[in-house]
Amino acid sequence: MGSSEGLGASSKPSHAPPKQYGVTKPISMAGPTVADFQRTQELEKFLVDSGLYESKEETSKREEVLHRLGQIVKGWVKQLTRIRGYTDQMVEDANAVIVTFGSYRLGVHGPGADLDTLCIGPSYVNREEDFFYTLHDILASMEEVTELQPVPDAHVPVMKFKFDGISIDLLYASISCLIVPDDLDISDVSILHNVDEPTVRSLNGCRVADQILKLIPNVEHFRTTLRCLKFWAKRRGVYSNMTGFLGGVNLALLVARVCQLYPNAVPSMLVSRFFRVYTQWRWPNPVMLCPIEENELGFSVWDPRKNHRDRTHHMPIITPAYPCMNSSYNVSTSTLRVMMEQFQFGNMICGEIEMNKVHWSALFEPYIFFESYKNYLQVDIVAADVDDLRAWKGWVESRLRQLTLMIERDTFGKLQCHPYPHEYIDTSRQCAHCAFFMGLQRKQGEVVQEGQQFDIRGTVEEFRHSVHMYVFWKPGMDIYVSHVRRRQIPSYVFPDGYKRSRQSRPTAQLENPHKSFHEDEVSGTEHCERNHKRKYDNRVGEKEGIMKKQSTSPPIDSLARHNLCLGADGLPVDAVSDRQALRNVEGVHLSNSVQDDLDRTVSPESEPECASNSSVITSVTSDGGSSEDIGSVSVAGYVEDSTKGAEVMINGRFEDTTYGTDPDTLVKNTAPSRNEVLPDELQKQLELAQYLAI
Question: What is the 3-state secondary structure (H, E, C) of 182-213?
């Protein structure tokens, strides 16, 4: 956490020309006001009070574990060197080093956080046998090591375990040298000579972290801001790279770019500018900290001109170390929509914080997922015991993103998913169990015709088939996908084992006066659903008699009303100047020729649907349906729908009646178009594209 001296340092005038960070000029060189300093102190106190900083004892324990792990891998390499008949001198010189990456290397880890580590070994010690078998067996024999789980087929192969209670993710990289020096310079690109792609990905975690810290104007301000926004993302349910949201690296890159654009800003300002920038960012324009570097080594870099797959990326966030890659390739149209909603929420709250209407705690109000949709998919994962479940769950969780993509594909994007990156456990089951949930809603603007159905039975079966291809499958491992309505959500997902009564909504989450869901009212045929339960024995029973709930996602019209921010002088100002500068920033990321190519493939003028219609509670149908009603969706069994209602169906006929919406409401609740957010005349700023040449 930055000290008050550190905060004041950035505001001192300098006679030397300011250093430019990033591929564009800053949006603003303004420094903090007295009010900004005060808000920063309040933010830092809030983060401390929230327990985001580990104690000195915990820090010492991490350092001790790292030292112990270093000794283990050195002994492992010496053992292999001796077995393979090398000379005594070679055995004595044999070495491996442990380096960190992720939150620990960036200096933003908190209590209980995983320790991301990389073991770098010599060329004759390989990953497939030596790391995943020999070292695995050494670790398995140690009392300090528990929950050991090798994941050799991951995109970045890893061994997961706990060492003396501290969670470790251990990668391995074999580099092209016989003796690994203790002072190895991992930032030198020569370390990538004669290595394979998994090794490059393993090494780049450390290289990217180092580059980020080199490319920002103030490391302490960056750390405080990133720590704050990681906490925010977790509270709002958008922190999970695996699920298609933001991971630690993605957030670090987004925060670092904002630090470059506002080099003299303190953390309270940077948090506010983060939301201001990314609510206006015109995805899929890439976020980049530096120009993309080519190299004679020939590794593929992110380039939508040459790589067709790069053109399909929805939210490119490019890593700064060679070979530059898109760190957020997992993002889908559905998860981008959810993130844009949360950016809008953060932008609204920060505006109110700057006007002294609310405190920092309002920004971190938990997102109440189970009050935000009427329909959910429940994915139950079971195994014979806890150890089997740990491995099986990790595999299934890594595939849940594919289920989201499959549903989007098979419904032509008309049925949108919101995967929630939290697992829930039903302790009443005899077998080991956990469950994940996805919110479902119809795409904004889609009109449900009478009798229209979303039949995803084949989609779910395809997903289950792909999941059961798990090479380490054991008897007892299974997965069940079922539909639940909001009132049927099982009680074990709630903190106290029961559903809380509805409370008044916070100031920041005002009720939309035009919204009418009538969530407790269903058609007279609802009793039919109780006779068409799915046949799996492990299906969680229906939960009845639950009070209706309301969405916590802020309505678009309320966001528009609160889109007022304070300038550096503390006075209310129009944000157009920032928007003009932001258009500069987006335009210069590609050279003119590259931009022309992209204009023909992924036009920066076209925006994802989520950016223009980001409210999950806006009523958009003209035939009597709400946006939460999604038509008939069948997952298993015969489906029949004779009503005008919109409901999910699984193994039977579930019917619901939807209700009318005033046409005026449709206009008022529609998000502003892109041109209303970013004026067209700012397009001329694209001529600054010479800053980057791919």
Answer: CCCCCCCHHHHCCCCHHHHHHHHHHHHHHHHH
pTM equals: 0.74
Helix (H) or strand (E) holding 137: helix 136-140
Compute the distance between CA of residue 27 and CA of residue 40 in angstroms, rounded to an integer.
21
| 138-141 contacts, C-beta under 8 A, 24 or more apart | 138/72, 138/76, 139/72
**For residue 323, cis peptide bond before it (omega within 30 degrees of 0):** yes
pLDDT the model gives residue 36: 97
* The two three-digit tokens of residue 685, written as one number: 């700023």
Q: What is the pLDDT of residue 420?
A: 95
- Catalytic residue set: 103, 114, 116, 169, 230, 239
Q: For the segment 362-374, what is each residue's pLDDT rounded down to a tens digit?
A: 999 999 999 999 9
pLDDT for res 451: 65
Kindly report the length of the chain.
694
Whether the Cβ atoms of residue 53 and residue 618 lie closer than 8 Å to each other: no
Strand order in the sheet with 632-634: 453-455, 632-634, 648-649
**Residue 424: beta bridge partners?**
435
Residues 6+ apart with CB under 8 A from 385: 432, 476
How far apart, in whole angstroms, are the C-alpha atoms of residue 101 and residue 376? 36
- Looking up tokens 């109780």 gives 530
Separation between Cα atoms, residue 47 and residue 40, nearest integer Å:
11
Q: Which residue has the tokens 């300011």?
A: 18
d(CA 553, CA 509): 7
**Integer Cα distance of 274 and 600 in angstroms:** 30
571-599 burial: b if 16+ Cβ within 10 Å, else e: eeeebeebbbbbbbbbbbbbbeebbebbe
Sheet-wide strand order for 158-163: 97-100, 115-121, 166-174, 158-163, 145-151
Q: Distance between CA 245 and CA 232 in Å, rounded?
A: 13
Half-sphere exposure of 262 (CA within 13 A, CB side): 25
SS (H, E, C) 27-55: CCCCCCCHHHHHHHHHHHHHHHHCCCCCC
Cα gap 29→229, rounded to integer Å: 22
H helix and E strand count, the chain: 20, 14
Spans of the chain, pLDDT less than 50: 1-14, 503-576, 590-627, 631-632, 636-694
- Sign for the CA dihedral angle at 8, 14, 20, 26 comes to positive
Q: For residue 593, what pLDDT is reported? A: 42
pLDDT tens per residue, range 170-198: 999 999 999 999 999 999 999 999 999 99
Sign of the dihedral through C-alpha 291, 199, 403, 601: positive
Enumerate residues 6+ apart whose C-beta is below 8 A from 168: 65, 69, 114, 115, 117, 159, 160, 161, 162
Give me the pLDDT at residue 178, please.
Answer: 93
Sign of CA dihedral 250, 252, 257, 262: positive
Are 563 and 347 contacting, i.e. CB atoms less than 8 angstroms apart? Answer: yes
Q: Which helix (H) or strand (E) holds 217?
A: none
Residue 552 DSSP symbol: -
Whether the Cβ atoms of residue 380 and residue 480 lie closer than 8 Å to each other: yes
CA–CA separation, 535 vs 649, rounded Å?
14
Tokens standing for residue 624: 């009597």
What's 80-111 look like in SS3? HHHHCCCCHHHHHHCCCEEEECHHHHHCCCCC
H helix runs in 215-332, sequence order:
219-235, 248-261, 267-280, 308-311
> In Å, what is the CA distance from 320 to each residue of 122, 247, 439?
26, 16, 34
